[in-house]
Design a protein that fits this description.
alpha+beta; five-stranded antiparallel beta sheet; three-stranded antiparallel beta sheet
């Protein structure tokens, strides 16, 4: 792969006719002429021949395909709407009459708890990070290629946060709703009015396609329902869009307060009459089913021709990016969220909570609810002895009835309410634990003061494998979206704007830098690194290893910087400035401390060995003393004196006044002791009788 060199301002012009390899531009074909022709509505209203498609046929096909797609989405759409109600805490019924009027209709926010848990996990890295996008350059790494990657990364991060003003806001919104419904879309295109890339959020129910296909990309036709005000419609009619719509048909906002509805269809037509359909973006006014605009949904890169100049294939430009929370186990094209997967469990949990509240309410007012004889209440009675049927009662009231002159105890009946059930309460707790155990990544991740850091990190990583897999899926979708934006930058480049953002000493070519043949766009943070706490634990362990290593294997400064970055410390330039060519003072101090600790450890080892040798010598002398008790008095005296010398030497060693060789010192003491004792001891007569003569006779 060729290296990209910075170029001067006068060299910024790039040949627009230079296309990627594999594209054969044949300019005389009508299909290529369509790319710069604007609104192609005239190709429908004024067909060249009777076999060409016309506007009425296109409108009919669009509405028919739309209706078919909506029918295929009906089952999923019902689950989607139920999940949205769960997230918005909207009950299925606005008022309950069972078991009594205005019974509890509370909705617990457990689904929102799961949504916020995921949102808090991904938003810091994928929305509010300083560098959301980084560039990975494939091929041989060179300094110039690294500079190029830095330029592209700088521009795209500025583009997402400043030039595309709604990107962060819509990305934040999308990541909050995704855990609930499981599917969202980003529509990435080039805004002609703003002369900038646009990436608009579309909710899961806003993109309509045939759900009978296995994946979203396989579906050939896609539809979006749009609404515009009268002023916006007039702008599209008079502006560059060139909508074919009579302004007189648009009523004023006073007469038509609701927005005007349109269908934007990405479908297939054969406008050039070669027998091969091509993708187009068709806009239909739903009130009259009139086609107002037709634009190509392809560009030159999507057209493939053979050697004879015939068009072989035309692909639809990649406009949509589908974000999925969890894939469908049945292989369907839509993702699954907690609100769809666990909807029944959430409903059951809300039902049990309502029953507990209702039971408590009934128990609180049981003393004032029941039946009473009308003679005691002073009110007219309900019923008589000749009349039968249900008796309507109200909570907190004693309903008068005719009893026939019973006693006072028999004339008042209180309704027996026992209050909330303990079994139902425990069932509610169990269901809540099951939900949180699946949706909350922080469950069972509490630290233990007695647990080693490595063990906690291993347990944390194991517990976060499931949420990490979801995060990686979202990151992969974000990568696709960033790649589409980079491709738009390549096709609709502006060197003036590019170099203004970079503000570098040398000018660079935006088209050359965004050449997609030798660079790939990836999210800024590697999702495999996990959550903040995982990165902090990992960086902390490496930093501790770097500080305590006996051999300089790990770079201490880099380990410290990684640790500070994991802690999200922003003022790194002040805390850890770049070294000036000399050895880092912090690292020098650390290495000096390590060397001193190693020397002290060696000295302690030598002292321990010397003390061991002295202990062995002392034991040997003690054995010699005990053996002398059965031998000569001279030997006894020698051993006692030698033992005392050994003990004295040990004391001298402990205070640091012994020699370098303890064994040699002991031998010298022993030699001097023997010579001294031998000179002072009286001679022993050779004919002295043996004090212990051997026994004579007897058994041998």
């Amino acid at each position: 792969m060729a290296e990209v060199q910075p170029i001067e301002e006068e060299q910024l012009a790039v040949d627009d006719d230079v296309l990627p390899d594999g594209v054969d531009p044949i300019k005389d074909l009508p299909l290529f002429e369509f790319l710069d022709a604007g609104n192609l509505i005239e190709n429908l209203t004024n067909p060249a021949d009777s076999e060409s498609v016309n506007a009425t046929q296109v409108s009919s096909d669009v509405m028919r395909l739309l209706d078919s797609a909506e029918q295929s989405m009906s089952k999923w759409l019902a689950k989607y709407k139920a999940a949205i109600k769960l997230a918005k805490l909207e009950p299925k019924t606005t008022k309950k009459t069972f078991p009594f009027e205005d019974a509890s209709n509370v909705m617990m926010p457990f689904i929102m708890e799961a949504m916020l848990d995921f949102h808090a996990r991904v938003v810091p890295e994928l929305v509010w990070a300083k560098n959301v996008v980084s560039i990975k350059a494939w091929g041989r790494q060179t300094p110039e290629k690294d500079k190029r990657a830095d330029r592209v990364s700088t521009y795209m991060n500025y583009q997402l946060t400043e030039l595309i003003s709604t990107w962060r806001k819509e990305q934040d919104k999308m990541l909050l709703g995704l855990p609930c419904v499981g599917t969202a879309y980003k529509k990435t295109s080039y805004d002609q009015d703003e002369q900038e890339a646009a990436s608009d959020l579309l909710q899961g129910d806003e993109v309509i396609f045939d759900h009978n296909y296995k994946t979203f990309d396989e579906a050939p036709d896609k539809f979006i329902k749009e609404e515009y005000t009268r002023n916006e419609c007039i702008e599209f009619i008079r502006g560059e869009m060139g909508w074919d719509l009579d302004e007189k048909t648009l009523q004023s906002e006073r007469d038509h307060p609701d927005p005007f509805k349109f269908i934007r269809a990405f479908t297939w037509l054969d406008l050039d009459g070669d027998g091969l359909t091509e993708p187009y973006e068709v806009v239909v006014y739903t009130e009259t089913e009139q086609v107002v605009s037709v634009y190509p949904a392809f560009d030159e890169d999507d057209i493939v021709t053979n050697e004879d100049g015939e068009i072989v294939k035309v692909s639809m430009s990649k406009i949509f990016t589908q974000y999925q929370f969890l894939p469908d186990p049945e292989g369907g094209p839509m993702g699954l969220g907690w609100g769809i997967m666990l909807a029944d469990l959430f409903d059951s949990l809300n039902t049990t909570v309502r029953q507990l509240i209702d039971a408590g309410t009934l128990a609180n007012i049981a003393g004032n609810s029941g039946l009473i004889d009308h003679q005691l209440s002073g009110a007219s009675a309900r019923g008589n002895r000749m009349q039968a049927g249900p008796v309507e009662v109200k909570m907190g009231e004693l309903t008068p009835i005719t009893t026939g002159g019973k006693s006072l105890m028999q004339s008042v009946v209180q309704f027996p309410y026992r209050g909330p059930s303990q079994a139902l309460f425990e069932l509610t707790q169990w269901m809540l634990e099951q939900i949180r155990g699946m949706t909350n990544s922080a469950m069972n991740m509490d630290t233990n003061s007695q647990e080693a850091a490595m063990m906690y990190l291993a347990r944390l990583q194991q517990g976060l494998k499931v949420p990490n897999s979801i995060v990686m899926r979202v990151y992969n979708s974000a990568k696709e979206e960033f790649s589409k934006i980079a491709e738009i930058n390549f096709k609709h480049y502006s060197d003036k704007k590019y170099n203004k953002v970079l503000d570098g000493e040398q000018k660079a070519s935006m088209r050359a830098d965004f050449n997609r043949d030798d660079c790939d766009i990836t999210p800024a943070i590697d999702p495999s690194q996990g959550s903040d706490i995982e990165r902090q634990q990992r960086a902390s362990i490496i930093f501790e290893e770097a500080k305590t290593q006996t051999q300089p294997v790990l770079n201490l400064r880099e380990a410290a910087l990684d640790w500070l970055k994991a802690l999200k410390v922003t003022d790194l330039e002040r805390l850890a400035p770049e070294p000036s060519g000399e050895q880092d003072p912090m690292e020098a101090v650390m290495m000096a401390n390590l060397q001193r600790e190693a020397e002290l450890a060696d000295r302690d080892m030598n002292i321990k060995e010397a003390k061991l040798n002295l202990d062995q010598m002392e034991a040997m002398m003690e054995g010699m003393r005990k053996g002398a008790e059965f031998g000569l008095q001279l030997d006894l005296t020698e051993s006692e004196i030698s033992l005392k010398y050994a003990q004295a030497f040990k004391a001298l060693w402990e205070i640091g006044m012994a020699g370098d060789d303890p064994i040699k010192t002991v031998q010298n003491i022993e030699t001097q002791l023997i010579d001294k004792v031998g000179a002072e001891a009286p001679p022993i007569p050779l004919d002295s009788p043996d004090p212990n003569p051997p026994p004579t006779g007897g058994a041998q």
